Structures are given as structure tokens and as C-alpha cells.
Fold:
Amino acid sequence: MAVIADRCLEVQVTVVDLNAERIAAWNDPDFSKLPVYEPGLDGVVARARGRNLHFSTAVDEAIGEADMVFISVNTPTKTRGLGAGQASDLKWVEASARSVARAARGHTIVVEKSTLPVRTAEVIQKILAAATPNGDGRSFSVLSNPEFLAEGTAIPDLEQPDRVLIGGEDPAAIAALAGVYGQWVPSDRILTTNLWSSELSKLTANAFLAQRISSINGIAAFCEATGADVREVAKAIGADSRIGPKFLQAGPGFGGSCFQKDILNLVYLCRHYGLEEVAAYWEQVVALNHWQQRRIARLVVTRLFGTVTGKRIGVLGFAFKADTNDTRESPAIRVCQDLLEEGAILQILDPKVPEGQITADLGQPAGTGEGSWQQVADVQQAASGADALLLLTEWQQFAGIDWPEVAAVMRQPAWLFDARARADGAAARAAGLNVWTVGEG
Ligand code: UGA
Structure:
């Protein structure tokens, strides 16, 4: 929404949320306090806020004034009831649709921006139709406009998108939304489809991306077993233009709020439609991802003579990827939990993730003694007295570690476990460390 406001001066954008604390943070005069860390976002908000970008808790008022309402609430995996563990929980989407039904005036275009199961637009349409039984001068058009930005690169992804997808049935509504994006996106990148294709394209895009990661992580384990190097393999296969070079980085498994949730949702829907083989096929992408996370924790324990009880391990990175403070489904969570279970003392370093978030994710506060963790401020502290450093997020700063200095404060024999192939492994070896790098045989 900030980018839309930045690019379309004649459009007034009001972002509303029931959470007053969050809205206050978006209005904070100190741009470093915005609730989301995303490179370049502070600059965009600074340009547009107060001009044509507003943050408010006056939900009904903003809906009443709007020509177009984007439903951008989260759709987490259901934790109980029908479809628990797989289906998306649509309660926030439904609540938003009911708010729109209550507060909208005149003709309102309702845009599904949240990632949704196929045919959710039907639910929204039914709620809106029920609110306007006799027309009452109000009308609605529902569009699907899924978001393809990735965290860490959100601003460039939005400013130069590969494509914008608009699904719908009402040509005038489609043209109105295409007109907004058309202010900065070339028209040949604005694709229009029917509603269901648009909804399903979002789930499919994430499923294909996640599948590439599980594929390369499976091959990484195979490389380690056979003496091949996954980076050489990735380069060789990526040179085939049909495969392409992107998204072939082996790592500790994919994290983030979307991949697992969207695949599980796809699996649930496939089963719903009786497509058991298709469901089982996609389910395996998630299973391999969990296996990769477990494999890394097991491997650390095995190399440290079969036990990490009472041993210090420096954990480099906790966010699910670099350049974000987001830890949702971060592979670091499962890996750290497994190591804590084994009695390790973790010294966790992440430049953007606050201690409170780590406490929530690991389910225990910082402490001391066996099976505890502490947050540290730099690599030197992470390494202090440690038997191993475990690199889990590919922050740029980890590429330039001074290995002789770090090795000097570790307990020998010491290890570097590089699950992202980010560190200078040769320099670490030269400084006397044992080195394991994902996918390196
Ligand atoms: C992903 C998609 O890339 C976006 O297109 C989509 O819009 C978004 O989900 C969403 O549905 O909201 P995001 O989760 O922000 O974006 O980040 P990615 O760059 O896709 O990374 C996801 C995970 O895969 C991270 O844990 C990352 O470290 C891992 N990854 C990515 C790898 O392990 N190897 C790679 O080669 C690429």
C-alpha cells in the first residue's frame, strides 16, 4: 500500500487495523520504529505518510470512504477443528468481508490481497450479497490480486514486478485496478485471469518455489554423501534455460510465513477434491523440508562426539532469511529447539530479531545452564567458549568474519557448521576450525 501511495499521487491510501499499538507504530515519527523491517520501506513511508498514505484504526470510516478495499489480513494454518494443521483459517477474511458489508457505501471494489484457498472469492461474494438484499444503492465487485513480493526485497519486487495478476469477472473493476498498477507497471506485465485461476496461481507459484528448495536440499544431502558439491551441481543445472539459475541455494530448509502454509493448503484442497496422489506429491515437499532441519541438528550433535549437553554453540542468524526481522517458520527455530532438547547452551546472534521474539519462538526465556539460550551482540560473543558456530541465516556480515580472531576464543577442537554456505570456509579451515558446509561432499 505504501508503494501504491508513493507511485499514485492522486490515490488516497488509508491502512486500517484494529490493533491500535500497531497503527501507532506505523505513525511513529522515528522511522526505525516501523513494525516491519524491510530495506527501503522507511524511505517510501517517509515520502508518502501524511500526504496520501494514512494509518488509522477508524476501520468503518475508511471503508465507507473507499472506492476500493484491499483485504490484506493473515490466513494462518488452522490449529483446530476441520482441516486442522492444513487448511487456512479464514476467520479474519470473513470478519473483514463482514466489515466491508457493513460499512461500504456506493459501489465498492473488494480486492483479495491475502493468499487464499481457491474459491474464497465466493465466500466474500456471498457475505456481501447477503448484506445488500435489495440493492439498497450499494454494490460490490470482488477481484483477486495476489501478492508475489518476497521479504527482504519487497520494495524492488513491488516497483519492478515480474507480473501483477488480477482475477475477476467484472471488466470495469479489473480496468480500475489495472489502472492503479498501470501508473508504474508496464501493461504487458499486468495479467488478467478468471477469479479461480488467480487464486490458484498464487498457491501454485509458492508450491513450485518451495519444491525447488526441497529438491536442491535433497540433492545437497546426496552431494555430501558422494563427494559432489551442490553449488557446482546447481550451477550446472541452472545453466539450462529451462531450469534457470534462481532458487537453487541449498540451506537449512525454507521458512517464512507462506511456503509451508500454502502447500499444506494446496494439499488439503487436493484431498477435498479427491486428488490423493496430487496431495501426497506436494506433501512430500514439506516433509523433506522438516527432514532437512532435523538432519542439521542431528549432524551437529554427531560431529560434536555425539553429545552437546552443556556445550556452548554460537548460532549465527535466527530470521528465516537475511534482510528481515521475520522469524515465522524460521528453520532456526526447529534446529535450536532440537539442540536445546539435547542440553546445548546456545549463544544466538541476529542483527534484527529482538530477544522477546526468540523467547516466543523457542518457548522459553533466555537463561543459563544446560538447555538454555542467550542473545549475544556480535560474532565474537557467539563464539566465546563455544565448541561450534552454526550459521543458519545468510546475513551479509557473516561472509566477512575474522576467523583467526574467532577461533582464538573457541574451545578446541572447534567446528563451523555452515548451513547456508555463506561463510569463508577456507579461511575458517586455515584458522584451525573443522568445517561442514551444506551440500559439500
Ligand atoms: C515467498 C515467495 O518467494 C514470494 O514470491 C511470495 O510472494 C511470498 O513467499 C508470499 O507468499 O508472501 P518469502 O517467503 O518472503 O517469499 O521469501 P523467499 O525468498 O521466497 O524465501 C523463503 C525461504 O526459502 C527462506 O527461508 C529462504 O532462505 C529459503 N530459500 C530461498 C532457500 O533456502 N534457497 C533458495 O534458493 C531460496
